[in-house]
Specification:
Blueprint: H1 2-24, H2 39-49, E1 53-59, E2 65-71, H3 76-94, H4 102-108, E3 109-113, E4 116-117, E5 135-140
Parallel strand pairs: 1-5
Antiparallel strand pairs: 1-2, 3-4, 3-5
Length: 144
């Protein structure tokens, strides 16, 4: 019986949290966010507003551009993780393919900026010269 009360309490808390997020997204600074926003997305948007984060536009070969938010001193690995999270959230919202093998993706594709491969995951984006609103290309690797 106590377990059922805990589940109900959790469900109520979750509902209250979602309602609060929905109200928060009506703020002019956050109005570009989707209705089913996550706390992480709100945090990223606030960080952008305060200059603590930047948007890197990742361009695919088909012309699609994905705006990915990372902290100002992000590494290549952090950009890859943010890209993965962006794609997973988009898939969850739109339906479609539920699982992608990111191990396969990073074996098959690489990111480039101004013709240079972002080969070192530990290197900071700014070391490659990447700044806010810059475009990074998602390119298929050539076979050796």
């Amino acid at each position: 019986m106590a377990e059922a009360e805990e589940e109900l309490a959790h469900a109520e808390v979750l509902e209250l949290f979602q309602e609060a997020l929905a109200r928060l997204v009506q703020d002019p600074l956050l109005c570009d966010l989707p209705p089913q926003v996550t706390a992480e997305e709100i945090g990223s948007q606030v960080a952008l507003e305060y200059g603590q984060a930047m948007t890197v536009r990742v361009c695919k070969a088909d012309g699609e551009t994905m705006p990915v938010v990372v902290v100002q001193d992000a590494s290549v690995l952090e950009l890859k993780k943010a890209l993965r999270r962006h794609v997973q959230l988009r898939q969850a919202r739109q339906g479609g393919v539920q699982h992608l093998s990111w191990k396969y993706i990073w074996r098959t594709y690489h990111l480039t900026f101004a013709g240079e491969k972002l080969a070192d995951d530990r290197k900071k984006l700014r070391e490659y010269g990447i700044r806010n609103r810059d475009e990074v290309s998602f390119i298929k690797k050539l076979r050796k």
